[in-house]
Known about the structure:
By secondary structure, the protein is an alpha/beta fold. The chain is built from 15 helices and 14 strands. FE3-S4 cluster (F3S) binds at residues 79-80, 119, 140, 233, 290-292, 317, 347, 349-350, 367-368, 371.
Amino acid sequence: MYLTKEEERMLNGEYGKGVEKAMRILVTLGDIYNAEKMIPISSAQISGISYKSIGDAGTEFLEDFANSGVKVRVTATMNPAGMDLEDWKKMGIPEDFAKNQLRIINALTKMGVIPIPSCTPYFHGFYPRFNEHVAWAESSAVAFVNSVIGARTNREGGPSALAAAITGRTPYYGLHIKENRAPKVAFKVNTNLVGILDFSLLGYFIGLTAKKEIPFIYGVKEVSAEELRSLGAGMASSGGIPMFHMDNITPESKDFEVPGEVIEVESKELEDVREKITTSEDVDLVALGCPHLTIKEIMNYYNFFKSHPPKHKVWLCTSRPVKEFFKNQGIVTELEKLNVLVVADTCMVVAPLEEMGIKSIGLDSTKAAHYSRNLSKLKVKLGKLEEII
Ligand code: F3S
């Protein structure tokens, strides 16, 4: 792979051991994917930061990097951690887990990563431009920036996103190259989609059906930013799809031909997915906010729960800036009185629910349902809010 003089200096250790290790990770990745060169990036988003996901080995890996004195060269944000960094006791997080989680946050912060753990950084200030190259790791955020904003990123792993943040570079391959962004299979939506669960189900169905190809979606009458977020999360979880095109939404979709192969989607397909994922009627906890909730969504839940106090404990998962807004309004305290916890910095998938005695969970997100079943081994009830509470 061609490296500039500066990149060679990084690889030869002239900027220290940490930068050298980061560049080595990227050169190895570039060699695997036959990248011809490195390209500069404007931001990175780093996943794999929950102690539940990375354990002691991952924590030490990050601490080694941090102790080498290395700093990120571009704006870098982090994915959700395993707990609310302030209110973890209220969540019932075990003390030991919390101690280790804080080691991870400290290591990342020492390197200059912004300590706002969230999977929707684009909703609170970290919004790349069209055609900008970035290196993001969270699969739902990758889908959003590629498909809705038109910035370009591959789906990075935690270490490669960190290496990109440290060097300000990423190998030029995959979705950084225009022609690799072409849709290969079309989905015609013949049913009226209402609310985030419907979009999440559509995404999950497309992920299962598109066989890793980039889909072109049309027939959707109306869609909000939150619904696009949930659509991308669904297809990333079931099919690892890092990008979709949607008619009148994806900025570059008119640059490509509409694929000839068309799969029709009726409401039955979506209902089948919901039934297949659901494994429980009872729930110990209802958790909303996969991906993280926006201010608009929490406001809607607040109004709903005031008149429909839930029977179960409820978590609303969101980012720190959004939680702070509701804290300042006194709404976090009001919701707590209704047994609804606004949980920042984390989510139902990366928090150690199994260790906390949770066995079954009510969800309105196919991504959360997918990982709660497969990773956390929980029983899942998937439905709209009124159904799961
Ligand atoms: Fe975000 Fe957790 Fe879902 S990281 S996308 S809320 S699994």
